[in-house]
What we know:
This protein is mainly alpha-helical. It is 59% helix and 2% strand. The chain contains eleven helices and two strands; from the N terminus they run αααααααβααβαα.
Amino acid sequence: MPRCPWAITEPNITYHDEEWGVPVHDDRLFFEFLILEGAQAGLSWTTILKKRENYRKAFDGFQAEKISRYGARDVRRLLSDTGIVRNRLKIAATIENAKIFLAVQKEFGSFDTYLWSFVNGKPIQNRWRRMADVPARTAESDAMSRDLLRRGFKFVGSTICYALMQATGMVNDHLVTCPRHAELGGARRGDLALFSILRYLRFLLLKINKCLTRRRVCFLVAAGLVPAQDVDHRSK
């Protein structure tokens, strides 16, 4: 079964297979995605993924408490850092967002509790068959965006909020043809059973093919058609 069609090269493949759509319940990671999704505005996600480690170093591992205390010297440092997106508005927004992020944590106990409230505490399991079916925004992302903006957050339009929801597993937007859709809870009971059967059949076919390959090699050697010393030991 193929991956979602946007994951065809690195670092997108690893990100798709290991992170995208996995439910997040860690405030630091939520803050990281909030900042990275905002930094992506006007750019490609691939560009941001390639700069992700640089962002972690430049922004103190996305520790909101430290970032909230950044001053003019830090801004100058960040504007000269070629490893990140050197946009003054986005840098200023990151610092301001860190301050509001801490306020939300204090109000709700955690940023995790606050964000998951927009989907009633559990992932929305979608069943898209084509990338063209996947929306850029939803009623939930609209509501999240409105509330974040009301609180003073920057770079949190509805489209950015929906990308955040996709990344952090608040919605499962892997296509139904992608193995990750089922693995992240998107399969109906019958679909999950079928998926397991297909995986087992693939395993059996690989084993059968390996056995047949060995037998063919043995036959060729016995018939004197192939010298034994020329047989690749991996085929035996």
